[in-house]
Amino acid sequence: MDEEADEVFPAEDQLFEDSFSKDCTFSFFGQECKINQSFSASLGVAASVWDAAIHLCRFFEQISLDLSGKRVIELGAGTGFLSILAARLGACVTLTDLPLAIPQAVRNIEANTPPNGWPSEAPIAAPLSWGQDQENFSSDWDFVLGTDIIYMPETFPLLLDTLVHLCGGGAVVFLSSKMRREHHTQDFYDNWLPQKFEVELVQREPESNINIYRAALRESLTETPKH
Q: Which alpha helices (H) appear in 21-80, and where do they start and end?
């Protein structure tokens, strides 16, 4: 497992003491998204498009995942890149993060509005604190997405509670993570998520140390299981 310093999520409060902005362009499914990353102490890790998001987009391309007309919610959306791509592919998307991260995502949504308008509707950006206000959100989703959101062990039970609520209608979860030993990422997938979900490792990238997992709430816990 790669433990180089640049693969570790930063914990220092002053990491982005000097604020700066960077634009990056990503292309998947023939859709080009220009994403602004506003690095600052307030945003911290929410400022970046992490490799795990790129790998999940590439995986969706490989399996030709059809998102048209699907109801999608993303946790820890950060820049909003994954949600913006899903919306440009026709999904009805709600992206969530902590309140400080929402303005950056909104700016990126506005900057990536297709010339002829969104195929379904513009992504909705809303604050969500895991384990606290998930009841403000529906349980009727087709997909719940998250990339590099498994890195703080103290949030594991809060995230699990949130996932259980969001998946009550039978949603499929896709989580893409850099498997950092120091952040106990594997522990979440081995010991926390299986408490409530059927979990499958669908892709392993040894060189990048990124895993993609597919999960579904155990049928006994769903309100209206999907077939």
A: 51-62
> How far is CA 199 from each of CA 26, 43, 106, 189, rounded to the nearest angstrom?
29, 31, 32, 8
Give the SS3 label for residue 174.
Answer: strand
| Cβ atoms of 35 and 23 closer than 8 Å | yes
**Nearest of 175, 178, 222 to residue 196 by alpha carbon:** 222
Could you tell me the pTM of the whole model? 0.86
Which residue is associated with the tokens 């996932």? 163
Question: Pseudo-torsion of CA 54, 50, 152, 215, nearest 10°?
Answer: -10
Length, in residues, of the chain: 227
Which residue in 25, 89, 77, 17 sits closest to 52, CA to CA?
Answer: 77
CA–CA separation, 35 vs 53, rounded Å? 13
CB neighbourhood size of 207 (10 A) = 6
* CA gap 178, 48 in Å, rounded: 14
How far apart are alpha carbons 43 and 19 in whole angstroms? 10
- pLDDT tens per residue, range 57-108: 999 999 999 999 999 999 999 999 999 999 999 999 999 999 999 999 999 9
158: Cβ–Cβ under 8 A, 6 or more apart, which residues? 130, 131, 132
Compute how many other C-beta atoms are within 10 angstroms of the C-beta atom of residue 193: 21
